[in-house]
Design brief:
The structure holds two protein chains of two kinds. Chain A has twelve helices and 17 strands. By secondary structure, chain A is α/β, with parallel strands linked by helices. The longest helix of chain A has 20 residues, at about 510-530. The relative contact order of chain B is 0.06. Classes of the chains: A alpha/beta, B mainly alpha. Chains A and B meet through helix 6, strand 4, helix 9 and helix 10 of A and helix 2, helix 3 and helix 4 of B.
């Protein structure tokens, strides 16, 4: 159902007034997986996606050209004390606007959440300035779906799938980590093929992950879930369709999705169930932009929690130079992890854990992010060491705060005349303490293998956006229940990282997929029971 | 720029004099526009990549699976080393 090369667009499979369909908005990790799983279970699904239907062969092995092809670059604004508001004020997050969503540029790290990460609130009690809440579910509820998700994604070191081989960049980080005494050091659980599997080839280690994987060795909803859904004959994929509002009836049930199609025409699709999976910033924005007389503060937002508790992980990077060549850009970008600091040990001066993960950038992105605004001889000399440089990314749990939130900026309208999202973030002292600890730990890893210089790189726009429609046991504490069903709108679901009650340390994609599989099963049960 | 340097064209200054002239306008909107544009242009240029040791697009060359993704020889495989 994709746009054809000559610009001809196929006719929609399902009629606009077919009120029996499930409309899923967003085709990324949550929406793309959910759409396929619902199709497999016999449902008719209209999948609305803002971006174009690029194919892997169209992806570009060049950082800036690729960013312009795949990234979500629609207008956004920022505020708050975070450095992003100064350094990248219109790019708070690096997500994708394309069929497949942000799975398209995902490197594939697949840690599971840990049991204690579902209940940080009860483990540590209230923390000043933090809106912590326990998840309404625990690890045991999610484990069966993690198992399914790992099989589906083809995660290495699970289901008998061979581990990734050590690449150059990992040899540096991994040896350094072992020398300072870390033991959880490996090439990781990764969602790319180390052997041919599921109709996709083994990786050729081309080093381009954040630019989209041209060879399809990486799992993405573009290359794995959506093609399978299309084979069922029950998927109606509508790319270049920007959802701008969800309408409801007098009883507060949602009835249709209003979107702008590729030609700029306003379209309306009736729906039995609507699932919102637009990534945390756009999900909150769509619910807020769907305000009505019945829901004056935004759809499903009587709690006032829509858009709040925005989380993006504590992040940062450490790069180091060496006297010998490294060539960090060769091979799978993130195939390496140190797990020792992902433990629950407030004795370090902060709550929550973090991972060190392998990471590299090309010269053009590195020059932009290494030291924003830097120039001059020292900067140029650092860049000249590029081939002798190793890198790691730091990713840990950040604290949810009520006022770290997505709101509507009514002073700035997008190309469809809709208020754009403003993203406000203030770092919490817990976040800052964790980041400092992680920087020091990363530097010690590289020092142990003879680093000449190390560089702390401040957080740049990242792809983990969570918490803006969080799960809660009580309706007053959050937006959705444990299945992602809106507390106050029975046929409205949220199906992306927005639902995560807390952020944990893990890269969220595996958890988003597991939650989507669980949600699909629940929706089918509810449909069969006549409850939807 | 030349007005800042006694009328001499920037390109004719020595490297030290150029640096001094640039320091004089650092932080201005003009400087920031030129700097941010130059950083992207210079480090996206294949000639720069050759200088700093980057090989650019690799998919069309078959990736690095047979071209040294693991050829670093001054450290062992960390997992094998344990």
């Amino acid at each position: 159902m994709s746009a054809q090369p000559d610009g001809h667009r196929p006719v929609n499979r399902f009629a606009a007034d077919d009120s029996d369909v499930i409309v899923v908005i967003g085709s990324g990790a949550g929406g793309g997986t959910l759409a396929n799983e619902l199709c497999q279970r016999g449902a008719k699904v209209v999948l609305i996606e803002a971006g174009r239907h690029h194919q892997p062969e169209d992806f570009i092995n060049d950082e800036w050209a690729s960013l312009n092809q795949l990234a979500w670059l629609d207008a956004r604004t920022t505020s708050g004390s975070w450095r992003i508001a100064r350094e990248f004020p219109n790019l708070p997050a690096w997500t994708c606007k394309t069929v497949g969503g942000t799975t398209v540029h995902w490197a594939g790290c697949c840690p599971r959440l840990k049991g204690w990460e579902f209940r940080i609130r009860s483990e540590h009690g209230p923390i000043d300035g933090v809106s912590l809440l326990d998840w309404p579910i625990g690890l045991s509820d999610l484990e069966p779906y993690y198992d399914k998700a790992e099989g589906r994604l083809g995660v290495t070191r699970t289901n008998g799938i061979p581990a990734p081989p050590a690449n150059n960049n990992f040899k540096v980080m991994g040896n350094g980590a072992k020398r300072v005494g870390y033991t959880g050091v490996s090439t990781g659980r990764m969602a790319f093929n180390t052997v041919p599997r599921d109709g996709r080839p083994a990786t050729i280690q081309d080093g381009f992950n954040y630019q989209g994987d041209k060879q399809r060795a990486h799992w993405s909803t573009l290359t794995a879930e959506i093609p399978k859904a299309e084979k069922t004959g029950r998927l109606d994929l509508r790319p270049e369709s920007m959802a701008i509002r969800i309408d409801h009836d007098d009883f507060g049930k949602v009835t249709r999705v209003v979107y702008v199609d590729a030609e700029g025409n306003l379209q309306r699709q009736e729906a039995r169930v609507v699932c919102v999976a637009c990534n945390a910033i756009e999900t909150a924005r769509l619910l807020l932009n769907s305000a009505s007389s019945l829901f004056p503060d935004g759809l499903a937002n009587s709690s006032g929690q829509v858009g709040r508790n925005y989380m993006r992980h504590v992040t940062g990077a450490v790069f180091a130079t060496f006297d010998k060549p490294v060539r960090m850009y060769r091979g799978e970008t993130m195939a390496g992890i140190v797990t020792d600091e992902s433990r629950n040990d407030p004795g370090r001066g902060f709550v929550g854990g973090y991972y060190m993960q392998l990471h590299s950038l090309g010269p053009s992105f590195l020059a932009t992010f290494l030291r924003p605004s830097a120039w001059g001889r020292d900067f140029a000399q650092i860049m000249e060491q590029y081939g002798h440089m190793a890198g790691m990314w730091l990713v840990g749990e950040d604290m949810p705060q009520e006022n770290n939130r997505v709101t509507l900026n009514r002073d700035v309208l997008d190309q469809f005349g809709q208020p754009v999202p403003n993203v406000h973030v203030d770092d919490h002292p817990n976040d800052t303490a964790m980041r400092e600890h992680a920087y020091a730990a990363g530097e010690s890893v590289y020092a142990a293998v003879g680093a000449l210089r190390t560089f702390r790189v401040s957080p740049y726009p990242t792809s983990h956006n969570l918490g803006t429609a969080r799960m809660s046991a009580r309706p007053e504490d959050g937006v959705v229940n444990e299945f992602g069903r809106a507390h106050e709108v029975p046929n409205l679901f949220v199906s992306d990282g927005s639902v995560m009650t807390t952020g944990a340390a893990a890269n969220p994609t595996l958890t988003i997929v597991a939650l989507a599989l669980r949600q699909a099963e629940y929706i089918e049960q509810q449909l069969k029971a006549g409850a939807l | 720029m030349s007005a800042l340097n006694g009328g001499r064209p920037f390109a004719e200054l020595s490297a030290d004099e150029q640096l001094k002239a640039l320091k004089g306008i650092e932080g201005s909107d003009f400087f920031e526009l030129v700097r941010s544009t130059a950083v992207v242009e210079v480090y996206s240029d294949q000639r720069t990549w050759q200088v700093v040791g980057y090989e650019g697009p690799s998919f069309d060359k078959g990736g690095y699976i047979n071209r040294g993704f693991n050829d670093l020889d001054w450290l062992p495989d960390p997992e094998a080393a344990s």
